C-alpha cells in the first residue's frame, strides 16, 4: 500500500499518471503484464487517469500526444508511431512498407475484432466438445475462421507499434531485427490475453507485453552475464538520474549523490554501475576510416614497463654470468630446479630422472652449487638487483 500511496503522490504533483510512472515505482510488474493491468485498474478505480507514454524517460517528447486508456476516449485516426531514423532501404524498410498497408484501428474496430476473436475461440471449444450436426459445424467453422482472421488483423495493424517500441531499445546489445521479432511475440501474446471489457485500448495493453518480451530479450541476449529484467530497469533509471543531476550541477554526480537521489545505499549504486558495464571487442574498428582496432589503444597493464624490462634483462644476463662459473651439470640442475629455462620448476625427482641420478644426489649437487654462488665474492654482484 505504501507503493500505491507513492503513485497517488505522483498524481497530486503531475495531475495524471503514466505507465512509465507505474514501472518506476513497481519495476517488477514489467515482468508480469497481467499484474501491471491489475495495478492500472486499481488506480483507475481510485479516479486516476492513466496515460500510455511509450517514450523512455530520457527521450520523452513534451509534444507527444498520449493514448488514453479509457474506453470512452475518442480514437485518434491520425495516430501514428515514431518510425523516424529507421532506414527504409533495407529489410526493415521493406517490412515497414508491407505493414503500413494495414491502416491503424479505431477503438470500435478493436472491440469488433476482439469480439470476433473471442467468438472464434468459443466456437472452437464447442466444436471440440460437442458433436454438432453438419449445419452447426459449418457455422462454428465459419466463426473459427473469422476469429483467426480477426487475430491476424489485430497483429498486422499493430506491427508499427512494435517497431516504434523496438526503436527505443536500439544499441543495447540486441540487433534491431531481433528486437522487432521479440516484440512481435509480445504482440501475439497480447492478442491472446486482451479483454476488451476491461476498458483498455489494445495499443495500450499490447505495449506492456511488447516491452516485456523486448526487455527480457535484452536481459537474456544483450549481455555476456544475464542481468534480471527488473535490475535492467533500475540500472536504466540510475543512468537517467545521473544525467539529470549532471545537467543540474554541470558536472558528473558522485555515487553518493546518485544514491541520495534514488534513496538507496551508495554501495548499491556502485554495484549497479559495475553490473551495467558491457564487454567490448578488442577488434572493434575505431577511427574515421575504421583502419585501427580498439585493442591498439588499450594499455596492457600486465606487461612490464621499459625500466622493468631493462632490469629483468640485466638480471638475467648477470645470473647467466654467475652460472657460467659452475660446472655444466651444476648450472643445468639449477636452471631446471628454479625454472630459468622455460619458467617451469622441476622437482628433485624429475631432475634426477633427466640425469639418471637419485633425488638425494640431485639435492646434494644443488646444495653445493648454491653454496658456491652464496660466496661473498659472487653474491655481492647480485645485491644491487635485490634491493
Overall pLDDT: 78
Share of residues in strands: under 5%
The count of helical stretches stands at: 17
- Give the tally of structural domains: 3
Give the overall shape, derived from the CA principal axes: elongated
* Element-level helix/strand string: HEHHEEHHHHHHHHHEEHHHHH
Query: Which secondary-structure class do the elements indicate?
Result: mainly alpha
Uncertain spans: 54-79
Total DSSP E strands: 5
Biggest sheet architecture: 3 strands, mixed
Rounded to an integer in angstroms, the radius of gyration calculated over CA atoms is: 35 Å
Helix content: 55-70%
For the record, give the distance between the C-alpha atoms at the N and C termini, rounded to a whole number: 68 Å
Q: Strand order, biggest sheet?
A: 1-2-3
Protein architecture, described:
The protein has 387 residues and is mainly α. It has 17 helices and five strands. The strands form two sheets. It has a three-stranded mixed β-sheet. The longest helix is centred in the middle third of the chain and has 24 residues. It starts with a helix and ends with a helix.
Give the structure's gist in a few sentences:
20% of the residues are buried. The protein is mainly α and 387 residues long.
Amino acid at each position: 500500500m505504501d507503493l500505491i500511496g507513492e503513485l497517488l503522490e505522483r498524481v497530486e504533483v503531475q495531475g495524471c499518471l503514466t505507465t512509465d510512472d507505474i514501472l518506476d515505482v513497481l519495476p517488477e510488474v514489467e515482468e508480469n503484464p497481467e499484474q501491471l493491468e491489475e495495478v492500472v485498474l486499481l488506480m483507475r478505480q481510485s479516479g486516476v487517469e492513466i496515460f500510455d507514454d511509450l517514450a523512455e524517460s530520457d527521450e520523452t517528447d513534451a509534444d507527444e500526444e498520449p493514448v488514453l486508456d479509457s474506453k470512452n476516449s475518442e480514437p485518434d485516426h491520425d495516430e501514428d508511431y515514431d518510425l523516424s531514423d529507421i532506414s527504409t532501404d533495407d529489410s526493415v524498410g521493406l517490412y515497414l512498407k508491407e505493414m503500413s498497408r494495414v491502416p491503424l484501428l479505431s477503438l470500435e474496430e478493436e472491440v469488433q475484432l476482439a469480439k470476433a476473436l473471442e467468438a472464434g475461440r468459443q466456437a472452437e471449444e464447442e466444436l471440440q466438445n460437442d458433436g454438432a450436426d453438419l449445419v452447426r459445424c459449418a457455422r462454428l467453422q465459419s466463426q473459427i475462421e473469422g476469429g483467426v482472421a480477426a487475430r491476424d488483423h489485430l497483429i498486422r495493424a499493430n506491427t508499427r507499434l512494435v517497431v516504434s517500441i523496438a526503436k527505443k531499445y536500439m544499441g543495447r546489445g540486441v540487433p534491431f531485427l531481433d528486437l522487432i521479432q521479440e516484440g512481435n511475440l509480445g504482440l501475439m501474446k497480447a492478442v491472446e490475453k486482451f479483454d476488451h471489457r476491461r476498458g483498455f485500448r489494445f495499443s495500450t495493453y499490447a505495449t506492456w507485453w511488447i516491452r516485456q518480451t523486448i526487455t527480457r530479450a535484452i536481459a537474456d541476449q544483450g549481455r555476456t552475464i544475464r542481468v534480471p529484467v527488473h535490475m535492467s530497469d533500475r540500472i536504466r533509471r540510475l543512468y537517467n538520474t545521473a544525467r539529470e543531476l549532471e545537467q543540474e550541477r554541470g558536472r558528473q554526480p558522485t555515487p553518493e549523490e546518485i544514491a541520495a537521489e534514488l534513496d538507496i545505499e551508495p554501495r548499491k549504486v556502485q554495484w549497479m554501475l559495475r553490473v551495467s558495464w558491457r564487454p567490448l571487442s578488442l577488434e572493434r574498428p575505431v577511427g574515421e576510416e575504421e583502419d585501427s582496432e580498439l585493442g591498439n589503444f588499450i594499455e596492457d597493464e600486465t606487461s612490464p614497463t621499459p625500466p622493468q624490462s631493462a632490469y629483468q634483462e640485466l638480471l638475467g644476463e648477470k645470473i647467466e654470468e654467475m652460472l657460467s662459473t659452475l660446472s655444466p651439470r651444476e648450472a643445468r640442475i639449477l636452471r631446471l630446479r628454479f625454472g630459468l629455462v622455460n619458467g617451469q620448476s622441476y622437482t628433485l625427482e624429475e631432475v634426477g630422472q633427466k640425469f639418471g641420478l637419485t633425488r638425494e644426489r640431485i639435492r646434494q649437487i644443488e646444495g653445493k652449487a648454491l653454496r658456491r654462488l652464496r660466496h661473498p665474492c659472487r653474491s655481492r654482484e647480485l645485491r644491487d638487483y635485490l634491493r
